[in-house]
Design brief:
This protein is an alpha/beta fold. The chain folds into 2 domains: 226 residues, Rossmann fold (3-Layer(aba) Sandwich); 88 residues, UDP-galactose 4-epimerase, domain 1 (Alpha-Beta Complex). The two termini are 22 Å apart. It has 9 helices and 13 strands. Helix content is 35%, strand content 16%.
C-alpha cells in the first residue's frame, strides 16, 4: 500500500489521480483532516483503500502488534499547515516539523521510501537565489517557510550524521502550484483560481501595485507550475523507488525554471475564458509587506540530473487546461 498524507488536498489528490490512472493502483491510504465543507469532493474521482484522520496514522502504521505494518511500500507526505500567514508557531512546529519527523523515523526504522513536501517559501526574499544544491544559509520570511526549512535541515542532518534514514527519500520545494482541486484553499489558492472567480463576478482582476523600486504594477514574478506536473515529479521518484531504480536522495525544486508575472498569469486566465482582459491594481495588504517574495524562479538542473526529462506545461498551456477543462465545467474536480 501507498500512504498519502494530505491526500484530500490539491497536490495529494492529484498524486492519487496519477496512481489511479497511470499506474492502475488503488491500494492507497488517504490521510488528511478535512476542514473545508467542500474539500471531500477532491476524492470523488479517486479509488483508494482506506481513509484515516491525520492523528490516527502513527498508531495505524504501528499495527495491532506495535511492530509496524509490513505492507507499506511508500509514504508520500504532502500534509501540512501551508498558510504563509499562519501566526501560531506552535501549530507549525507540531504539524510541519514534529509530525514529519515521526513519519521519517518510522520509514527509516521500517525501510520504507519517504517523499515529502517542502516549499519555495524556504528561500525567503530570494537574495541567495533559488538553487536546491545548497540550503544551509536560507532565511525564510514567515513561520511556514521556516518550519519547512527546519525539517529540510533536520533531514540532511540525519544523513550527515549517518543516522537511520529511509532507503529512498526526497523533499520537494514546490514553487507556485496552480490547478484543479485547489478550491478549498480560500485565500491561499492560486492567483489563477482567484482571477477566474473575480473576473467572472466583477469583470476585472485585482493585482498588487509594484510597491518595490523597479517593479511595475502586476509585474511581481513567480515560477508558476501546473499541479499535474508537480504530481508527475513526485510519482517519478515513487516509481523509481518501487522499481529499485537508482535516483539520488535529496531535496529538489519543483518549478518550471521560468518566472512569469502575475499580470501574465491573470491575462492568460481571462483569455482562456475567451474574454478581453481587464486588470485593476491595488495596494498590498499590510500583513504581507516585508514578507513578500517579488521574484521566484526554480533552478532545475538538479532534477534533470536525477533523470527527470518530462516537459512541463507552459503557463499558457497549463492555464488553458485548468480553465477550459475544469473551472468552466459543471464538475470541476480532477
Amino acid at each position: 500500500m501507498i500512504v498519502i498524507t494530505g491526500g484530500a488536498g490539491m497536490i495529494g489528490s492529484i498524486i492519487a489521480w496519477h496512481l489511479n490512472t497511470k499506474l492502475n493502483r488503488d491500494d492507497i491510504v488517504i490521510v488528511d483532516r478535512i476542514t473545508h465543507e467542500e474539500q471531500w469532493q477532491n476524492l470523488t474521482h479517486r479509488q483508494y483503500a482506506h481513509y484515516l484522520d491525520k492523528d490516527q496514522l502513527m498508531s495505524w502504521l504501528q499495527g495491532a502488534d506495535s511492530k509496524g505494518r509490513t505492507d507499506i511500500e511508500a509514504v508520500i507526505h504532502m500534509g501540512a499547515i501551508s498558510a504563509t500567514t499562519e501566526r501560531d508557531f506552535n501549530k507549525l512546529v507540531e504539524t510541519n516539523i514534529q509530525y514529519s519527523q515521526n513519519l521519517w523515523t518510522w520509514c527509516a526504522n521500517h525501510q520504507v521510501p519517504f517523499f515529502y513536501a517542502s516549499s519555495a517559501a524556504t528561500y525567503g526574499d530570494g537574495n541567495l537565489g533559488y538553487d536546491d544544491a545548497s540550503i544551509e544559509n536560507l532565511r525564510p520570511l514567515n513561520g511556514y517557510g521556516y518550519s519547512k526549512h527546519f525539517f529540510d535541515q533536520w533531514a540532511l542532518r540525519q544523513v550527515n550524521k549517518k543516522l537511520p534514514t529511509p532507503p529512498n527519500w526526497a523533499g520537494f520545494k514546490f514553487f507556485n502550484v496552480y490547478g484543479p482541486n485547489e478550491y478549498h484553499k480560500e485565500r491561499m489558492a492560486s492567483v489563477a483560481f482567484h482571477t477566474f472567480n473575480q473576473f467572472s463576478e466583477t469583470g476585472t482582476m485585482k493585482l498588487f501595485k509594484g510597491t518595490k523600486a523597479g517593479v511595475e504594477d502586476g509585474m511581481q514574478m513567480r515560477d508558476f507550475v501546473y499541479v499535474k506536473d508537480a504530481a508527475a515529479v513526485v510519482n517519478y521518484f515513487l516509481e523509481s523507488a518501487l522499481a529499485k531504480k537508482s535516483v539520488p536522495n535529496g531535496i529538489y525544486n519543483i518549478g518550471t525554471g521560468k518566472a512569469r508575472s502575475f499580470k501574465d498569469l491573470a491575462t492568460n486566465v481571462m483569455q482562456s475564458m475567451n474574454r478581453e482582459p481587464h486588470i485593476t491594481f491595488v495596494d498590498m495588504p499590510q500583513d504581507l509587506q516585508g514578507k513578500y517574495q517579488y521574484f521566484t524562479e526554480a533552478a532545475m538542473s538538479k532534477l534533470a540530473s536525477a533523470g527527470y526529462t518530462h516537459p512541463f506545461h507552459s503557463l499558457e498551456d497549463g492555464v488553458r487546461d485548468y480553465v477550459q477543462n475544469y473551472l468552466t465545467q459543471e464538475d470541476k474536480y480532477c
